[in-house]
Amino acid sequence: MALDGSAESSRARDLTRTQDHEEGVQIASKAYDVTKTDEPSDLSPEQGEYANAIFAPRINRTQDDTQEAVQTQAQGLNRRNPFHEATSLINHGGLGTGTQTPSLQTNTPSPSEITSEITSALNAYEKAFYPGQPKSLSGIAIRSFLLGTALAFTSILSLYLVYAGNPVWRAPFFLSTLSLFHFLEFYTTALANTSDAKISSFLLTSNGSAYTIAHTAAFTETLLSHYFLPASILPKPIHFILLLAGLGMIAVGQAVRATAMLQAGSNFSHIVAHTKKATHALVTTGMYSVLRHPSYFGFFWWGIGTQLVCGNAVCLAGYGYVLWRFFDRRISGEEELLVGFFGEEYVNYRARTPVGIPFIK
Q1: CA–CA separation, 310 vs 304, rounded Å?
Q2: Disulfide check for 188: which of 176, 261, 286, 312 has CB 3.0–4.6 Å away?
Q3: Over pLDDT 90: what percentage of the chain?
Q4: Residues 6 or more apart whose Cβ sits within 8 Å of residue 39
Q5: Residue 147 and residue 139 in contact, taking contact as beta carbons nearer than 8 Å
Q6: Measured between alpha carbons, how far apart are the two ends of the chain, in Å?
Q7: d(CA 303, CA 295)
Q8: How far is CA 180 from each of CA 28, 186, 200, 298, rounded to the nearest angstrom?
Q9: Does residue 305 surpass a pLDDT of 70?
């Protein structure tokens, strides 16, 4: 077997320069085969060096690995002591070394029993997501869809009425703020406290009849007052200032509440916890470093802001009184529990952090 030495040598050098390893190996392999035969060849020095560079390390590694395996096996045989093995067998009754502990369990469940228990547990878990259940996926989907549709429709209608110069735009605007608020209540819970997210997290009906009556009264007052009294009884500058103040309160209140819920994570709940869980922690960073109850702060000022934008005199007074009384009592009772949970740590935190709601310390 013979190779064209000049051509192959030139090609090998080119491949070496371009680092085309795969094709270079093929050429070197051919060259290496030639060196293992008795046939004359015209191998160039470059071909021989390339063959050795490729294959010699592989051969050496194979030989080294073989020698190491033989040595390891020999060492293992040398370490084996038949007398020691016999003594161990007798002393441990054929149960192995003393480090092994025999199992005393006699009622080991069969694979079918284990499978049945796992299936039952999974069925119980999945049932919570079925229609009519607290975490019903279909219930969550339909509520999200309806809130999104209501938000889009009322926002467009409100903008159209503003463009037309009709003061009734405040009524659909009020509905759009409600739609966004209730969607974000569920969304932030699902995002930061996923295991606690359920249909009631929307707060559509879980706040009781008083909540529904308040919003119904506010919508009715907005619609009737601006339909029958389209012109504001207040001077335009004051009317404009109150409108801007209301919009600002809605934006800030919603942002603060949503951010507080996200930062509290699993420590936030729509229902006051009367027992401390193992995962409960006192959150004092973010919004909680500035306000002691930022979610309550946000809800309070969001509610006041909606009535300022709507221009409701009666419901503004009603919202202010009801919200203040509600949060005053809730914060007082909740903080008694928090002092019991966290002791002096919460007492010090309460002393240095305000609530942000008038006359609630």
Answers
A1: 10
A2: 261
A3: 60
A4: 1, 2
A5: no
A6: 100
A7: 12
A8: 72, 10, 16, 14
A9: yes
Residue in the block written with tokens 């009709």? 166
Token pair for 180: 């966004």
What are the residues whose beta carbons fall under 8 Å from the beta carbon of 179, sequence distance 6 or more?
A: 147, 148, 150, 151, 154
Q: Are 222 and 171 in contact (CB under 8 A)?
A: yes
pLDDT, one tens digit per residue, over 23-56 is 444 544 555 454 445 444 454 555 555 445 544 5
- Domain 135-352 classified CATH 1.20.120.1630? yes
- Reported as a single tens digit per residue, the pLDDT across 95-114 is 445 444 444 455 677 778 77
State the maximum Cα–Cα separation within the chain, in Å, rounded to a whole number.
115
Model confidence pLDDT, tens digit, residues 203-253: 999 888 999 999 999 999 999 998 888 777 788 899 999 999 999 999 999
What span, in angstroms and rounded, lies between the C-alpha atoms of 218 and 114? 57
164 contacts: CB under 8 Å, gap ≥ 6: none
Exposed, middle or buried, 204 (CB in 10 Å: 0-12/13-18/19+)?
middle
Tokens of 266: 């699993």
Q: Which amino acid is at 178?
A: L
Domain ranges of the chain: 5-72, 135-352
Tokens of 70: 């033989």
CA dihedral angle for residue 28, residue 30, residue 35, residue 41, rounded to 10 degrees: -110
- 3-class state of residue 223 by DSSP: helix
Q: How far is CA 290 from the centre of its chain?
A: 25
Contact 185, 206 (CB under 8 A): no
Rounded to an integer, what distance in angstroms lies between the CA atom of residue 150 and that of residue 274? 36
Give the mean pLDDT of the chain. 80
